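Aim 2 progress update. The chain analyzed this quarter is reproduced below.
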Amino acid sequence: MGKENKAIITEASSTKKVILKLAWPVIAEQFLATITHIVDMMMVGRLGAAAVTAIGLTMQPVFFTAAFASALSVGTTALVSRFIGSDNNKDAALVLQQSILMSILFSIVAAILFYFSAPYLLAFMGGDAEVIELGSSYLRIMTPGFVFMVLAFIVTAALRGAGETKIPMKVNIVVNLLNIILNYLLIFGNFGFPELGVNGAALATTISRSFGGIVLLALSFSNYSVLKMNFKNFFKIKLTLIKRILRVGVPTALEESVRRMAQLLFVRIIAALGTTAYAAHQIAINAESISYMPGFGIAVAATTIVGQNIGANNFSGAEKGSYEAWKIGSLIMGFMALIFLIFPEFLIKLYTDNPDIIAMGALNLRIIAFSQLQMGTHFIFAGALRGAGDTKAVFYSTALSSWVFRLFLGYLLVHRFGLGLAGGWLAMVVDWSVRGSYVLIRFKKGKWKNIEV
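Predicted structure tokens:
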């Protein structure tokens, strides 16, 4: 692998330059993905509140698949970055190979389960008859593409750990543009295509994401990839390597499971307020996601920097890079907070002209503005700890905060204290504040320097 992809921090190197070089392709990729998601939601929003609610509720159980996928991706990133830091490209490619094999097996099982349980999941989530019908069809159309969606997730994680963030960006630019075009054609039936409504949105997502997964897999066998795999012995299982991946990744799987279960129950709390309130919640979540782009991009940089510098036995570089990433992230997230405080109505009106949804959604954004710095702190130091393999600490922070503060406090504020939807978003502010504080303190203690992966 060329040195241009390395993320080693030295006295002579510009820490800020290394961070931005790693982060900007991720931010650009996330930006387009978020814009695509926003455009998708705008198009679906024209179909009515039931359509928005159906997709919002459907995606909650789907996100549960992220638990295992995240276990693989975090374990993959941590090991790949360490191997790259120690100039061991061969083992870095083997990590990717083993993760791909596990992802294929997992996603096939998940697809079968979701296909047959779709209506029951929607009923459990509190959807009415119309929402259950729309959501079940949406989920079943998406299941054939699960294999390629998870595969793309894993390959992207490996490439980021290697410091190669441009390849996933380029592929995902094409994927998201394809998604927007297919949405336009299939949701509304433009240019002679069938008008499929919610099903059109599902089909567009499935086709575009599957295309991305196939391209990334093909690139992983080519000279274009920094982690070139070999067809020979591709299906050979290496249990020792799988154990190392899972040792780092299992706490992340637990973290995702705990967080998603809390989020699923939190959605039920919000859904009990009615379709209009839930639509306002879903639209505000969608609009708020623009702040995730820079935070996530800087977090990816922190993960790669920490992993590669530990692999090179450069702990001071790992520490220096993480704190510099925090400074950059805080500036960006502070700017996003101002956007949510000053222009919330403008953002919500991009999705709907319903005055009740606009009023509730705008209030949500103003409330969540007060958590942007804490959210950025959590993103960046959780990323740094994951790069070091300290995934248990991130799990503890998420388990404590999401269940005690987002879920339990959210229930009290929404229903017991009668604050409605605003109460749920106040609980989210507390949740992010606790999580951000926890991972910052954990990183400062320095125990991550002694973790074996």
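The radius of gyration is 21 Å. Residues 12-448 form one domain. These observations will guide the mutagenesis experiments scheduled for the next reporting period.
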